[in-house]
Give the backbone structure.
Amino acid sequence: MSTSKEKNHTPDLSVVIPLYNEEESVAELYAQISAVVEREGLDTEIIFIDDGSTDDSFEVLCALREQDPRVRVCQFRRNYGKSAALAEGFARARGAYVVTMDADLQDDPEEIPHLIDKLEQGFDLISGWKKKRYDPFIKRVTSKLFNFVTRTLTGVNLHDMNCGLKIYRNEVVKNVQIYGQRHRFIPVLAVQNGFRVGELVVTHHARKYGVSKFGPSRFLNGFLDLITLIFLSRYVKRPLHFFGGVGMILLFLGFLISLDLTIERIFFQRYLTNRPLLFLGVLLIIVGTQFISIGLIGEMFAESRAENRQYKIRASLGFDDDEE
């Protein structure tokens, strides 16, 4: 049984670690984190979110939980993705500060004190910048391109938007909603919610165990998610402004083409049966009308939009709801 005091306890720091098939690295990562927080005198909880691992990751985490009550473990029934894992970790984090890092040992726990110091300079979120990174060439190139496009389109001037090593004030993780693949854009979401975001150069290590989960599809999905994020942040409450704007432009162009052809037919007696421009004008009018209709339909659903948790939990260890 957990006491009321334990339930209301607010540690200095929560370390949230999403993982998938990292059985070889989690124990070593735990040892590194423990050494840092004990040296710094930080009252800490370490939250592992097992995103449906198919190896022995959960068994290793259970062993860590048995030897250290600071370890808290949540296991998903299947792999739902990093956004779902972070969302669950954020919901369960109690610390005044919340640090996220990947479980592959590429993020360095020694950066935790530096992140705290930077956060205390008046920020709500500090994102790590892997200025010198040990990743495959294609991943480094696509990451630079992705970050450049994201900076340009969102105005959030960070060099490494998707770095797994970040620190937040607790109020940030409780107010920023992530789902789908929005974990790539947490700093953007924080800025949109009025939080102050900064950046700190952090140490990056080469992968020690296993293989990278990076693939070409993540690059494409990242840009699609960026388009989604921009649309949702700017137009989710007013979809007609987006679809209606595009529709009005197309409708206006179609109208001008049709008007010009009508004038030619009436005043200059020119036949239109062999004029492809006629079909273009009609097409633009039809498509423009459809865009406006989509915007009107979107307006009908804008206020009723709600996000529901789309993942199922198999087991959790060390949380209040399991110990009551």
User: Anything to note?
Assistant: Confidence is low (pLDDT under 50) at residues 1-5.
